């Protein structure tokens, strides 16, 4: 049975939406916590025993650094694509290669420097014990590209974990 009455269609769509909404909200409940930023997750806040002021401080750090780091990620991708595209095109003159490589190195270096500044700002908000627990509680908080701070020189930096050998390439 179909109807051409627009009011009926709107009413029907609204009724279906209202009927499905609680189920969708319940299904999204467990995943909703995963979609929050690392410092907004209740499990992280409890593991680190963050105070309200610390959560506010971390929020300010992330709001300050987040957009700049995102822009730097875009610059890294542009520099990477430019070098790969130039190499894909065929024989690349040495000077052009050096220029593009320098741009890539600068993009990665700038990103690493700003990430270090972000870590310093986070360290000022957290206590020594909270900082040491951070790699376990929120590993994504201290990443630099694909590198995590949990391993440095092949040694796991978090408390209570065995030392590991560096992976060979």
Features:
169 residues; 4 strands; flat; two-stranded antiparallel sheet
Q: Can you put this structure into words, describing what you see?
A:
This protein has 169 residues and is mainly α. 68% of the residues lie in helices and 5% in strands. It has 5 helices and 4 strands, in the order H-H-H-H-H-E-E-E-E. Strands 1-2 form a two-stranded antiparallel sheet. Strands 3-4 form a two-stranded antiparallel ribbon. A hairpin with a 2-residue loop joins strand 1 (143-144) and strand 2 (147-148). Helix 3 (52-88) packs antiparallel against helix 4 (94-125). It is flat and about 70 Å long. The protein starts with 5 loop residues before the first helix and ends in a 13-residue tail after the last strand. The model is unreliable at 150-158 (pLDDT under 50).
SSE map:
Layout: H1 6-34, H2 42-48, H3 52-88, H4 94-125, H5 128-137, E1 143-144, E2 147-148, E3 151-152, E4 155-156
Q: What is the radius of gyration?
A: 24 Å
Shape: flat
Helix content: 55-70%
- Which regions have little confidence, pLDDT < 50, spanning 5+ residues? 150-158
Spatial order of the strands in the main sheet? 1-2
User: Major sheet, described briefly?
Assistant: 2 strands, antiparallel
Element-by-element helix/strand order: HHHHHEEEE
How confident overall, as mean pLDDT?
80
N- to C-terminal distance: 65 Å
Number of helices: 5
Going by helix content, strand content and strand pairing, the class is: mainly alpha
**Share in β-strands:** under 5%
Total DSSP E strands:
4
């Amino acid at each position: 049975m179909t109807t051409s009455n627009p009011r009926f269609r709107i009413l029907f769509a609204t009724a279906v939406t209202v009927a499905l909404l609680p189920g969708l909200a319940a299904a999204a409940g467990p995943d909703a916590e995963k979609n929050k930023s690392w410092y907004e997750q209740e499990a992280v806040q409890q593991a680190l025993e963050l105070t309200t002021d610390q959560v506010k401080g971390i929020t300010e750090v992330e709001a300050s650094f987040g957009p700049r780091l995102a822009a730097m990620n875009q610059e890294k991708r542009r520099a990477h694509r430019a070098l790969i595209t130039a190499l894909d095109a065929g024989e690349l003159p040495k000077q052009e290669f050096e220029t593009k490589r320098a741009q890539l190195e600068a993009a990665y270096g700038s990103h690493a420097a700003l990430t270090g500044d972000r870590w310093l700002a986070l360290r000022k908000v957290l206590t020594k014990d909270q900082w040491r627990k951070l790699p376990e509680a929120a590993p994504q908080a201290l990443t630099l590209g694909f590198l995590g701070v949990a391993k440095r020189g092949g040694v796991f930096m978090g408390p209570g974990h065995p030392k590991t050998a560096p992976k060979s390439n």
